[in-house]
Amino acid sequence: MAQRLVSVWQPFFLGSESPEAALDAAIELEKLGYSRLWFSAGFGENIPSRFRELLDGTERIGIAPGIVSIWHSSPAEVAAFAREAERDHPGRFLLGLGASHAVLVENDGTDYRRPYSKMVSYLDGLDAAGLDAGQRILAALGPRMLELSRDRSAGAHPYFVPAEHTAEARVALGPDRLLAPEVAVVLEADATAARAVARQYTAGYLTLPNYTNNLRRFGWTDEDFAGGGSDRLVDAIIPWGTAEQVAAGLEKHFQAGADEVAVQVLNGGDASSFPAEAFRALAAVLI
């Protein structure tokens, strides 16, 4: 692997009502040495202004949406944002794209059909708008989307996956594409308390077929998905413990082939507060 980068994935950066608080957190993470900030672009028609605010207010750290929904924004608008970001902040904005989930898309009245074909069409639109393939990355889980990531983007940004998936993704992508999985963590040494926090996060994701179908490919079953996840599943997806123990869990993804790991610190689902102390502790052992 040419890279070994530690990034941050945190809903706070979109969820915070205070642009100043979001920028202060981004500046501190940049100083701590984190390589990129990932956060959702939501489900609006355009990329939120928060991405541009953080680019303008920081100096080096990368900024990436994880993800822009291909059902909610047009290729032309997204390409225009990415081109302007590249013009003003060369090499710092990476466009993360994803097909999202049927339950989320259809809530807005959109017919969620043939997501793979929708992604191909969206990439065609970005090509037509002049956005280079190296400026985008796909939220890929299954084999077909991983191959599309390899062939038509900078790489893959899987979400909610164990290290076994990272190993499979590296094989599918080959050696030259960026592999940057999101990995949620809990900084809590007590097993009962840590798993309780983790299940506040896993419970929702285990209702989404995109994730459960992906996990089934690695041998997980309905029994593992019940009740917010079995202990074994929770432990496989969510590293928990001291900063050193969490770092050991993240190391499994690096060993499996990740170039970059996007760390999401779980803090009870509160997107309005930033877990600064946790990221400081992790920086001390990871960076």
From TrEMBL:
Transmembrane segments: none
GO molecular function (one): oxidoreductase activity, acting on paired donors, with incorporation or reduction of molecular oxygen
Domain Luciferase-like: 17-124
Gene3D superfamilies in the record: Luciferase-like domain
GO cellular component: cytosol
Lineage top rank: taxon: Bacteria
InterPro entries per UniProt: Bact_Lucif_Oxidored, Lucif-like_OxRdatse_MSMEG_4141, Luciferase-like_dom, Luciferase-like_sf
A matching Pfam family: Bac_luciferase
Protein name: LLM class F420-dependent oxidoreductase
Organism: Actinoplanes cyaneus
